Automatic annotation (TrEMBL), chain A:
GO terms for biological process: organic phosphonate catabolic process. GO terms for molecular function: 4 iron, 4 sulfur cluster binding; lyase activity. This is Carbon-phosphorus lyase complex subunit PhnJ. InterPro entries: PhnJ (IPR010306). Keywords: Lyase. It comes from Oceanobacillus arenosus. It comes from the Bacteria.
UniProtKB/TrEMBL annotation, chain B:
GO terms for molecular function: lyase activity. The lineage of its organism: Bacteria, Bacillati, Bacillota, Bacilli, Bacillales. This is Carbon-phosphorus lyase. InterPro entries: PhnI. One of its GO terms (biological process) is organic phosphonate metabolic process.
Amino acid sequence: MKTNTHFAFFDEGSKKEIRRAILKAVAIPGYQVPFASREMPIARGWGTGGLQITLSIIGKQDVLKVIDQGADESVNAVSIKKLVQATTGVKLTERTQESSIIQSRHRIPEVALTEGQILVLQVPMPEPLRPYEAKEYQTKILHSEEDYSGAWLMLFEQIMKYGQTATGADHPVYVNNRYVMAPSPIPRFDNPKMHQSEALILLGAGREKKIYAVPPYTDVASLAFDDYPFAVESFEGKHCHLCGATNVFMDELIDHSTGETIYQCNDTSYCMERLNANVEAEVEENHV
Amino acid sequence: MGYVAVKGGTNAIEASIERLKYDRIKDEEILEVNTILATMKAMIDHVMSESSLYSPLLAALAIKQAEGSMEEAVFLMRAHRSTLPRLYYSQTVESESMLVERRISASFKDIPGGQLLGATRDYTHRLLDFELIDEDQNHNEQWLRDYKDKLAEIKALDGVQYFPKVVDYLREEGLFKRHEMDNEKPDDITKQSLHFPASRSARLQVLTRGQTGAVTSLGYASLRGYGQVHPTVGEVRVGDLPIYVAHPNEMEQNEENEFYIGEIKVTEVESFVPVTVKNEQNESELEFEIGYGICYGQNETKAIAMSILDQCLEHPEAEFPTHDEEFVLLHIDSVEATGFISHLKLPHYVTFQSKLDSVRQVKKGGFKDEN
């Protein structure tokens, strides 16, 4: 009993249903649209929300890039890529510039995205208010009444306790001056990239059954107080030990031979590209 | 260089999948799907119920592929389920039409139609049967012949016997409220995501596909103290229900035009729960309500626990987590719970780096403004 799977895994009816939720999400920036999330061949919590978006919008002409925590070769990114490619046959790439759809877990690439590209972010917890209100029924009311005092209080409490805000990744943002939104656990470093992004950003939470979006050229502001401004992770004075890049999000590593802490671009394809460019430049120099 | 954990992913995955296959077949034994179908009925029932896909054959295949891991087998079935087009809804089933294999009541000794113990492990002694290590086909065949001879001596009834519901009998006495027929179309939680407050139809759907262990343990928690439902099992019945679908085109719908598409085995439970109600004179009175549980296959523990939780969720006013529909319904799904727990194995380098930065900043500059 052998059966073939449909193009992009889903039947067309399912894709249409998901696309309808996406359209609504685009129409109401930052609003979490509930959708009938399907069970996928990869586990809940492993990118099923992002995957459902990708599969429902992908066409034969698309070029797909998948990254997990900045890396194209991370095991789960590979696994997702394999699944999409096996069911669609689309072209895969690691180059951000070449891709039309980028599915990512917890990073926005360093190379600025451009018009026509779609960034699909995988979301574990779509509800920015969940840390202080467990009930979905209540958070829905809070959003509809634009009652975000709890979100502000969370930051205020951190300032009272620690002298500054102490959020990690997933620092909440105000979208289009209306909805407070979880940007997914991207580092604070990536939050500003959402503001007036040229590319469409779609966020999918499979387990929590929500889709939301930041359409191109939308205002996105990280929650902060005037006297305690929003701050991204600091890599001051640090540079990538491979390509020498500064002002990018970096992984902290230990050089096993010297025991020293070294830094390396988290965005692996960005780093690779810079390394290749350096090599090319060297070659050219030596062969003039 | 220390950054191998998230690199070389393609090779690592391929090697890992090969290793998995090697581990499955290295002992050179092949388990036939038919063997699972014939001998692992309880497991098949659990898998079908938790995946909400009724297909013993596919469940057996999933069990084989998952090497017996329940969560994995359910996961496989659910993933397969989402590739299937959903063409019809079946007609409403009256569970009085069940071909009953087993039916007991803990409330009354003498229920109309009588008690029918059927096949149950309830009264077996749980001693390991070492003879099963060397089970012998000839011996089994002999046993089957003897059993059939014994059956032949029993005089069978003419015609099929259907059993009335125990609750009907109590309703006649006025101990249970008579409710209006509610013919509202049920929600379909697989087509529309759950919203709160949830309808009862949505709640029952989530409960019946809940993980057996999770449903059981929340039902138990409620019974033991973290809940206000103390039921008596009015009726447990196990048997086959015929399923019909309406003619897709025929304008005039009647039972004659319906198609029989097969039968499903289910366990159905009605629990009787005493509740205090106000009568017309505003005096407190005791009355019974029903907690309802049903699931694919024979899985009585789950169905009973479900009936407790159904009744709990009908009374959200009680201050217990087992009466809180978001707490119960959002945490009992096998695929969701196991998926999210296991996702913690994925790298969290970026998120951790971000948190690390926060902690360092706090350590460096905390309270510098005030002091």
